[in-house]
Amino acid sequence: MNPQAMGSKKKEIALQVNISTQELWEEMLSSKGLTVVDVYQGWCGPCKPVVSLFQKMRMEVGLDLLHFALAEADCLDVLEKYRGRCEPTFLFYAGGKLVAVVRGANAPLLQKTILDQLEAERKVLAEGGERKVIKDEVLSEEDERFSREKDDGEDEDVVSSEKACTLAIIKPDAVVHGKTSEIIMKIQEAGFDILTSEERTMTEAEMRLFYQHRAGKEAFEKLVHHMCSGPSHLLILTRTEGTEDVVTAWRNFMGPCDPDVARREQPDSLRAQYGTEMPFNAVHGSRDGEDARRELALLFPGFKFSDQVPEAPLVLLPETSCDYFHHTDASN
Fold first, then answer.
1. Other C-beta atoms within 10 Å of 276: how many?
2. Where in the numbering of this chain does the Nucleoside diphosphate kinase-like domain appear (predicted)?
3. Are 161 and 238 in contact (CB under 8 A)?
């Protein structure tokens, strides 16, 4: 074989370090700069389509602060909760801490995340600032369940922090287009904390009860059908940053119900970016604190609020921005 070709092949092989032991995992966490870990399942192997992207990124940004690694979920206890998942998962570590997660072989999103996180880490190293550490919602969900079982031995969710909560749903139209990971990343970047999350397909009975206060409205059947048409991603959100309560903050972050109105009035909102037309507006949010408790009780029946959790204040939104159900905020 041509020596130059052999050198190129070795470079490609060395592009992603294979982490197969706890010692190698800890060594990876201590690496200076940003490390992107492709967590894969043994039965399907690593995500090959991204190798060329990683090679390109290494050539563009250099080798000093950007590293790529492979880790089989079945080989490392620390990745136990990722076992059996068919969607590729990429974990971004800096300073030994998780700073971003991307699910799916979404090359544009991976490239953007690498560049954004690499720039953030360079600033941390140069200026000594704090990293924006996150919790992967998959791990957070499992940890939350473990904590509940350990505390009371019962199969119920207990919120012990004195924070108001609200329901967020990434709707089937956004999930089917592979936007879940991107939206979750934006949610975390906006300062929301994800207490728990799960992806599942709603039943018709659930959705008819969920929207029962809107029964009889002209688009009720269309909305129920849409919400049962495929998997949704359900999240319980709290908020630690800013002065707004979590219900108001989440509704403002979603934007107006109608995606066309959102694109005109709040182009940076989630519905402006990911919604298409009514009722396909990508995300749902509870209207007020009372509605949040009702919706959470319906979709997370085991989730019990601490008595200390304050009621989120009633939020009345302008009727003109949500006229899907005769000026009632039905898209949510």
1. 14
2. 163-307
3. yes
Neighbours of 175 (CB within 10 A): 19
pTM, 2 dp: 0.49
Say what the pLDDT of residue 319 is. 29
Query: Is residue 201 classed as helix, strand or coil in its secondary structure?
Result: strand
Provide the terminal-to-terminal Cα distance of the chain, rounded to the nearest Å: 61
Q: Find where tokens 């919400």 sit.
A: 227
Domain range enclosing 39: 3-127
Q: How confident is the model at residue 324 (pLDDT cuts 50, 70, 90)?
A: very low
Of 127, 147, 177, which one is at a domain's C-terminal end?
127
Catalytic residue among 67, 226, 233, 284: 284
Q: pLDDT per residue over 254-288, tens digit each? A: 999 888 999 999 999 999 999 988 878 899 998 88
Number of domains, the chain = 2
| DSSP string for residues in 227-266 | HTSSEEEEEEEEE-SSSS-HHHHHHHHH--SSHHHHHHH-
